[in-house]
Amino acid sequence: LGLGPPLAGLLAQFAPRPIRLVYLIELALLALGLILHPAMPETVERRGLRLDFAGLKLPAEVRSVFLPAGVAGVAAFAVSGVFGAVGPSMLGEVLGITQPTAAGFLIGALFACSVAGQLAPRVWAPIRVLPAGCAGLAAALALLALALEARSVWLLVAAALVAGLAQGAIIGGG
Prior knowledge:
By secondary structure, the chain is mainly α.
């Protein structure tokens, strides 16, 4: 997921016929996956398909944290969506940076920081990581607004990095 935006940016800027090429690469990777899939070992023994939703409920030990973690998770992905939609446009229209590689690497940096942020619950207690991640999302949005007002690429990059770390912390801590 994290490599997609930078690679798409590189293709869009430097490859011939980038719109078609992206889809050809995606189809080639899909075909490779379909070819390799049957050779992958099964990790569990299948006993048939039986769907029973009648007794579906949250285990008692996770009920108290499910709603806060779920809301925080939705917010984290929403902020990533905002960066994915607004970041490249802001680079081009506000900052005058129109190279597709810049947009790709901006979003790729957010995803890379998200991976790094997922390590936070290994260092700190998840009960502290989730609220810190939510505060990080708010800080990232504030940095994004400041970047827009100040027309600053450095603030935009900082906002993306903070958003990625916060998203990762929420995913890891939730």
